[in-house]
Amino acid sequence: MINLDKKSGLGKESLIKMEQIDSKHAQEQGEKKQEANENISLGKASRLNNQFSTSIEHYTKALEIATEHEYKQQETEALVGLGHAHRGNNQFQTGIEHYEKALEIAKEHEYREQETEALVGLGDAYRESNQFQKAIEQYEKALKIGKKREFEDQYKETQVLLGLGDAYSGNDQFRTATEQYEKALGITKEYGYKQVETVALIRLGGVCRGNNQFETAIKYYDKALEFTKEYEYKHLETLALVGLGCAYRRNNQFETAIEHYTNAVEIARLHEYKQQETEALVELGDTYRVQNLFQEAIEHYKKALEIAKEHEYKQQETEAFVGLGDAYRMSYQFQMAIEHYEKALQIARPHEYKQRETEALVGLGDTYRVKNQFQTAIEHYKKALKIAKEHGYNQQERQALVWLGHAYRENNQFQMAIKHYEKALEIAKKHEPQDKYQETQVLLGLGDAYDGNNQLHKAIEHYENALGIAKEHEYKQLEAEAFVQLGDAYRENDQFQMAIEHYEKALEIAMRHEYRQQEAEGLIGLGDAYIVNNQFETAVEYYEKGLRIVKKHEDKQQEADVLVQLGDAYRANNKFQAAVEHYNKALQIGKEHGYKRQERRALSGLGEAFRENNQFQTVTERFKEGLDGAKYTQTEKQASEIAEGAGDRNDETTAENTMKEMSKIIDTHNESNQNLQTSNTSDVPQVLNIHCENGNNSDHKHIVNEIVSDETGNSADQLSVMGCSYENE
């Protein structure tokens, strides 16, 4: 018989022991859960402080504990946190993987809040890696879940709407983006979420700026700035200031832009917002660069680069390298430009910064194009185009097609240029009306291609279309550019009055809005029109005005071009000394900066000036120098590439033909001297007959006149040579 008392006693002891074990286990479990929660909190704190590596360590520790002890909610939170941390560290693919794992658990256990957060995180990751369509899908799912629950947290709804707006904006769907931002703004006003309202205003400013609605953008940014100052949102204040800087810069109000960027840098430094400081410095670099203030631009890019390297802001480091590449390229330091673009590519490729990769490739293409290495340029543009197509970057795809059009056009492959411009135009027309700005740019490119192909009527048609859009949408800078291009086309078509009218319209807009580039182009165009119309003094006046602007903005290449044009104007007006002075100045700039085309043009002009002024010995030296200068000496390959370029061959051929003509004239001059020493003036008609047979007698009549006058005492107009008569000039 079993002793129940004894058994009962043993049972009590066991129960007590088991309770103690359970209590200890529960305590351990509670401690572990608390440890997991603490690591999640530490991970979040580190992440918000941009200490992403430390953040990842804490989230990983929390994940290990949660997985081991099956704390599903903590596991989900840790995975979402890891997604945020990796995304903040620009490791988008890793971030996406963690969000997807979190989403799977959240769905299984119906953690609706974590499910929404994971979807928003996925949307953010896809958006920041420029996968805009995927981002839109995730945000829409998050929005759908929220609406089913009637959005218990309206704050979360505003975040989803802002993310959705950003995705639509990145996908060039500006109207839809604006709708999302306005919805978010409405909620923030209703519930008094001032901080999120400020963010919404900054976003609206951004979409208006991207849509070239600069005045509206400035209003939104100013309102946001007002809130940031009132509520001391210092971080958002830097963002609003940077946004204002961008809007003013895009509107060519450079000094105002610099003021806002500088204020942003000061606040960022004071509060140690290192990432924002880096971004503001890059923007300052961009602003100085577009004003051709390359040294200042380089200084700011280098400061940004230093901070980015120190804090491992890889994306900003890439941006700084691209900016430096642009600055070196535009200041014609091509090797330095190539090196910096290559460095940008080295970072962009392993980190999958596809947009930055396309920018670096386009920069390399531009560099090789300016160096007349068109095939290499085209290869880089095609690589950029491929990436843009693969990732659905509509804007980059369109831009790559436009640059390919430029490369083919400058290489005189006009049909290929037209083909690529047409493709770019097709993309521009597919999207919302706000893409009219890009459409206008493409139409101008098409006009240039038809112009180069001597299809002036088609060129004018495209310029007129561009002008119509620019006027309708008040794209004043593009309107000025269209007027300049129309002026060029009418001038080439010998419609000088029409050309002058269009240049004057361009000049009026450019001066009113301080578009210095277009102002210079308008003035130079007027100079071109008046010189062709034989109004040399007026031409000189306009060239001098254009030259002053070009000098102020330190555009050395254009300065050399204008100096050559001034030389041409003085030479056409028989002011040979002034012509020679201007050609020599252009030649000096060309040699100093390696502008071979300008160097050749200056040498050719000098040769013509000396020829027309009958300085035969100097002529032969100058033309020989011009021919040698037409061939680049860096490498045989580069020399071959440039020699094959149609533009360079034309310059070379022109110099060669003029050399041949001069050789004939000089040979004849020498022959006439010998004949005159041994015979009488009856031999002179035979000498002159040689020139008549060679043609172009009107071009050389004053030279022949001088030869005859010097040697015989009779001017050419007193002689009739085989039916070839010369008249007094």
UniProtKB/TrEMBL annotation:
Domain MalT-like TPR region: 320-444
Domain of life: Eukaryota
Alphabetized UniProt keyword annotations: Cytoplasm, Repeat, TPR repeat
Gene3D superfamilies in the cross-refs: Tetratricopeptide repeat domain
Compositionally biased region (Basic and acidic residues): 17-36
Predominant place of localization: cytoplasm
GO annotations of cellular component type: cell cortex
Keyword Repeat on entry: yes
Record bears the keyword Cytoplasm: yes
Renumbered residue ranges of the record's region Disordered: 17-44
GO biological process: establishment of mitotic spindle orientation
Compartments, record wording: Cytoplasm
Molecular function per GO: G-protein alpha-subunit binding; GDP-dissociation inhibitor activity
InterPro entries from the UniProt entry: GPSM, TPR-like_helical_dom_sf, TPR_2, TPR_MalT, TPR_rpt
Protein name according to UniProt: Tetratricopeptide repeat 28
Annotated source species: Paramuricea clavata
Lineage, broadest ranks: Eukaryota, Metazoa, Cnidaria, Anthozoa, Octocorallia
